[in-house]
């Protein structure tokens, strides 16, 4: 059964339209960065979101195909356009001025965000604000149903001490991962995570339970990102911005992700001793993160086989110091401005894998 995607009432409908328009422009410029397999899977779920189909609904191949053709034609028309301002009640805002836009939208229980993600891709979203949590030095905003989004829709973001968690994007990401795993059902970390929930008999309840659990993991990771940013400072951000859409960017981001998780995510997951979260964490390590840190995978495998977290705890401690040293060495190489710095930085990461 189809239910139409959420629409905001007038005059907020124009805000929704402006944000979605900017999402389309971003996708027009960056959707081609995905491999064909990943692109088609993401487009399929993007179609499901836009049309309001439930996760379990079978999608018509012809309907998806027609929509895909129309969307790519729209992107061709928008590829050279500049991002549009967001106008709210007669006031025009720069689309990247999230703070000002949110001050205006707060009374409507809406949450807006604009920023840059992997490969410097601009991201925009507009969603219903579910709740705000003050956690230690951090303010955490959790959104639910989304009114506007782009293709990749990262489920979590942070800026300074502000953390944004997108429940609907996380829920959809989890469903995508479940669908991927079901193609061949490999006996891996993802399979171990999925088997902790009753997806066979009650997929909706299982998805909600997994989403609620992984929101906590996202918060831990984003806290780690903030702490890593405080340690590395602006020099790291300036360095990363200097080589967007490159292999080196992917490698450097992997170094920082390992540092962030050693600072926050992994120590807390191990302390809690919650198998579903640990399995899912290791199921989501990217290829590059696995490549530069095989010792962490070995420690996880030891925990799976023996149930003893000792080796994992030791490796987290080792990794915390190691990846901080690597990150600082990368910044130092970047600041040297030597001609072959990029090559030296890639070599450093490869040589310093654990």
Describe this structure as you would to a colleague.
The chain has 354 residues and is α+β, with helices and mostly antiparallel strands. The chain has two domains: 13-172, no CATH class; 189-351, no CATH class. 60% of the residues lie in helices and 13% in strands. The chain is built from 13 helices and seven strands. It has helices at 13-30, 36-51, 61-78, 98-105, 167-182, 189-194, 203-241, 247-272, 275-283, 287-292, 294-306, 310-336, 341-351, and strands spanning 86-88, 91-93, 110-116, 122-135, 138-148, 156-159, 162-166. The strands form two sheets. It has a five-stranded mixed sheet. It has a two-stranded antiparallel sheet with strand order 1-2. Helix 8 runs antiparallel to helix 12 and helix 12 (310-336) runs antiparallel to helix 13. It is globular, with a radius of gyration of 21 Å. The mean pLDDT is 88.
Please describe the structure with a list of short key phrases separated by commas or semicolons.
single chain, alpha+beta, 2 domains, 5-stranded mixed β-sheet, two-stranded antiparallel sheet
